[in-house]
Amino acid sequence: MRKQSGAGTLAALALTCVFGVTLLLSLAAGAGVYRRVADRVDESSQSRVSLSYVAALLHSYDEAGMAEAGTYGDGGAVFLYQEIDGLIYETILYVYDGQLREMLCEKDWEQDAEFGDPISPAQALEVSEPVPGLLRLVLTGPDGTKQTADVYIRSEG
Amino acid sequence: MKRGGGVSGAVSLVMIFCVLCLAVFAVLTLATADREAKLAEMTARSAADYYEADRRAVEIAAALQKGGEPADVAVVWSGDVASFTVPIGEDQALDAAVRVQAGGPCEIVRWRTIYTGEWEPEEYLNVWDGT
Amino acid sequence: MNMERIKPTRSGLFAIELLIAVGVFSLCAAICVGLFVRSEVMSQDSADLNRAVTEARSAAECFKAVGGDLEKTAELTGGQISGDTTLFISYDQSWHKLDAGAEGAFDITLTLRPEDGYTGASLSVQRYDRTEKETTGTTILFWEIAALEVAS
User: Fold this and answer.
1) Taking an 8 Å Cβ-Cβ cutoff, which residues of chain B contact chain C?
2) Cα dihedral sign for A123, C95, B35, A40?
3) Does residue C5 lie within any of the structural domains?
């Protein structure tokens, strides 16, 4: 009788251990799925906040002589101009100190790159013009991955 | 009579705890994915609206270059520069201006997106006006 | 006749409780796993749609920058022209551009449509599910775009 009850207890304990491991594995799997979904959301929002934002700004400043490529901060930059009350202001989009930044100041006012408002983390911004009017923006994210966006400045001059 | 040990109650407790955790993970994940799906749809729709308006503006510019005047859009002339606006969705518009040139393609002077929705500035802060 | 009462043992009660716990957990886990699978599919579809919009925007901007010239658009985008009026740009599952002619998981198709005074085109993004027997394509994005002639 004792042997039988001992065997029964052992069997029950073994089943409990298997059940416990199953519970832990299912929790780990659930956490893994959530991690994957959250990572994808982070990646999409990184792209949306950075390059898409720059592209949308370029479209809203598309007027003759109001948008051009240049260099500022740690590399390439986009310069957008607007006239307010007779003064020309420039909005500069550039990367400095690991951040994509935006700075609004009076045109040709010498400002340190650190004063720009940070938008999103980024390592570098390269701006090129493969054909006249087409700005090719290559943004290197904080993890080293590169995203490319082409924006055509339709206005001439 | 001996009562049942603590071990048997613990199994049920652990099971309930794990089910709760799993349910919370599942609901969180579904909510995050659903929110992201809606945002992706909005982004796609916004881009589609922009290119639809852009296509319409190109049609208008081509018609103006040929000397025609599109009936369903208001064109304002300033010398040889024609300005017109094409709506993009509900809150934005494409503000375009083209210089019509005889014997060549028209020159685009302005082709920018503008916000046309209602906007009220918040004035609860006393911002220094310089005086 | 002796009637012996069968007393339930501790391990017997424990086994019954374990069985009920396993049953309840299996039911709840099945529901949660279904939700996880649905979330994973939705998340992947959203990521694909976001990338499709970004790549389609770039293709459309390149097309407009060259005034609707398909050959120059192909040079800028790394696509392949088919039949003089259609441009294909292929991507793999991770949205990396593939060489011309390669079978990808995603395709951007630009089909020319000459108009009066400008060049029109339809731009679509397809997703392909390839199995051994067949390939099914789903259009996830469709735009009509236009390009004015660019002064040379």
Assistant:
1) 2, 4-5, 7-8, 11-12, 15, 18-19, 22-23, 25-27, 29-30, 32-34, 36-37, 39-41, 43-44, 47-48, 51-52, 54-55, 58-59, 61-63, 65-66, 104-108
2) negative
3) no
